[in-house]
Fold this protein.
Amino acid sequence: MSEKMVKEKIMVDPWGKALVSDYTRLIKEFGMQEFDIEMMPHPSTQMKRGLIFGGQDLNVIADAMKNKKPFYCLTGIMPSSEKIHLGTAAVVENVRYFQEQGAITYVLIADVESQAARGVPIEEGKKRALEFHIPAYIALGLDPKKTKFYFQSENKTVSNLASVCSQKITENEFRAIYGSVHPAKVMSAFIQMGDILHPQLKEPMPGVIPVGIDQAPHIRMSRDIARRLRSEYGFFAPAASYNKYTSALDGSFKMSKNESVGKLEIPEKDRTELEKKLKKALTGGRATKEEQIKKGGQPDKCIAYEYCKNHFIKEDKILAEMYQDCLGGKNLCGECKQKFLITHANKFYDDFDKKFANAKKIVGKMKFLD
Ligand code: TRP
Ligand code: SF4
């Protein structure tokens, strides 16, 4: 890395693209805390596998969990994209974990943000969310009975709180956090502040926002604003957990949710296409068959392994088998991909399709907050 790059500040724009591969630097520059698994009373599989790299005030959430005190967990869905990225699914998995640990769970449809930042008409965003995103989040494991869903466009409490928040930040502070003061970004950011803080209006309590790194600026501003509103509203600064970024199948890091090249999405209806993509995934295999058998492969450099670990293989035993077989040179990469990656990806997608079909049936009966 050049001297200049080392010195350059990491600037994450939630609506743009950024290249982030150095988590240690990120933690430092964003004033995050490294994720400490020892702190969590019942760590999830994701946590055990190192997928959560950092957080903010997670000790407060851990304490609430231990002492059975109320806390909330909140996430938002952008109905601008037609599908869900695997990275987003990993964040939903983390929401599911906090829900299981007792969090009061909110999931909002960011139809106002999709309109402002991406030009998706509100009605169109709503329609897509009802047809796809909401049942998809349920299929990914959220309990519809325990999840409070709402649309940004319909939630007055949220927009009123957004306007309160907008008084608490100067133009220069906003620019320092987001890199610009584009009107659509300002609009979206303050609505998001309303989302993040509104569960505390009735009763201040800790809350956790599980996110990917692209959302770090929002977390930062929400924490600043919460502190400034503390004397008036008693707000806790929201806690956050940060999921590692999902690399593209060719091994590159791409941050934008709109960048679908070489990435898997949910759903993947065409299984032949899916297998084709998986067969092209970067591996940690050796140059020749002989070398692979002699030295074994390099699972820690292998995207096939990374995808199995982060997304497709839930059972520790099977994952360990993949890892050990690789190190022992037991399989060539083609065979390994067939046996582990393709088999378990198909299983994952079959399971999703089945649960999605079931979830579709209940969406019509769901109630939304307003
Ligand atoms: N901005 C988020 C995204 O791009 C969506 C979102 C809106 C959100 N409000 C939120 C996420 C509150 C977390 C918390 O995906
Ligand atoms: Fe990756 Fe499997 Fe090849 Fe090992 S054998 S490098 S895990 S594809």
Summary: DSSP finds 17 helices and nine strands in the chain. The first strand starts at residue 33 and ends at 34. Residues 1-7, 255-261 have pLDDT under 50 and may be disordered.
